[in-house]
Design goal:
alpha+beta, FAD/NAD(P)-binding domain, Alpha-Beta Plaits, 3 domains, 5-stranded parallel sheet, 16 helices, 37% helix, 21% strand
Length: 466
Amino acid sequence: MARIIVTGGGMGGLTAAMLLAGDGHDVTVLERDAAPPGDPETAWEDWERRGVNQFRLLHFFLPLFRQIMEAELPAVSKQIEAAGALRLNSVVDAPEFLRGPVRVDDSRYDGLTARRPVMEAIVARCAAETVGVTVRRGIGVAGLVAGGGAVPHVTGVRTEHGEELSADLVVDATGRRSPLPSWLEAIGGRRPAEEVDDSGFVYYGRHFTSADGSLPAVMGPLLQSYGSISCLSLPCDHGTWGLGIIASSGDAALRGLRHADVWDRVARALPLTTHWLDGSPLESEPTVMAKIEDRHRSFCVDGEPVATGVLALGDSWACTNPSVGRGASIALRHAVALRDLLRTAPSDPRALALAWHDTTAAVVEPMFRATLDFDRGRLAEIDAEVTGREYTPDPGWELTRALMSSAFKDPDCFRAFLTIVSVLALPEEVFADTEVFRKVIELGSGWRDDPPLGPSRAELLTLVEG
């Protein structure tokens, strides 16, 4: 079995390490942040992860994450639930007028979720207890160690302390800020082909807790659109929840949302989630995340790998707008694909790099592209609302908007919408069901005429201005 170094000890790196160790590999995880996770119950207050800029933002772990964890890391899944993570079902827990009668297969919408510091602390504890996994915190990677040749072959890493660690394979899981392209350049490799663009969104989020451990009633989809803003309402662990307002990063008129009083006024004007403010806030001011990149990297250029012996995982490979909460699920599916590939991996490093490129394209690339399509459609719609110009959506977004409208009118459409949002299936797979497609067109094609559920643009600006 192989000696594997995983750079990055976040959710993707830790779950990948446990999966690989389960197959007998000797895995060392190198994490730059020195602070240990400690107790999951105090992680929210005590644990700082300066290397993860979204660490305290709203998080939601989708049903796909729960499905994979239960199938591939069942002992970890049990510890997650035992430590207080919330098990909920976005269909069963919804009002009956949305979901209709509960169905036998509705259990697939079960999620297991928590605030990011809490979830990562549980997973970190499990990783530390896993035979074959060594987690070294406070060890940043300065670069790669490689042999010569037209295509460099990576044989290990060099830490920021000057230590050289050898490995049969390096897996980069350093996330959105991954320096892998510069590491490759430093050893004489080519940079990967990159698609990079500002996602165009800014997030203003707050967490709340109740005195009795109860959670607010869910009155609709967790992600809802209100003209030029969207709202995220996310149940969490231990009687906590998150509420987020998402706007266009170019919408200067809404930047006052960074202030608690402005944020509160706007949040209370959203009728399906106004009761989500009936708790004690865990932050004095909204947590803001902006300048978020949509980024995709291809590590095979002109049919050849830019290097061998190193593979990118999760957000190191591709990342996008986090408001739909798909990052952890995509990274975990990517990690399972890596584990499976290494079971039958070709011994030739070049063949392995090409096989990983093809596996990534087949297994997780469609999820990334679907997310990007959703982001682009929603952002164009918001920008039209902000500028007051007429918006003509492309056919894909027209169908998405019809589905979002029909989800409030029919239980089948409601489930279809949540299936896509939860990444349990791709849009084209859902719409391949001719009965669902028929209902979406019949019930949702008039989405432009649906009565607004929240404030108009003028009313929103008045709320922001106070």
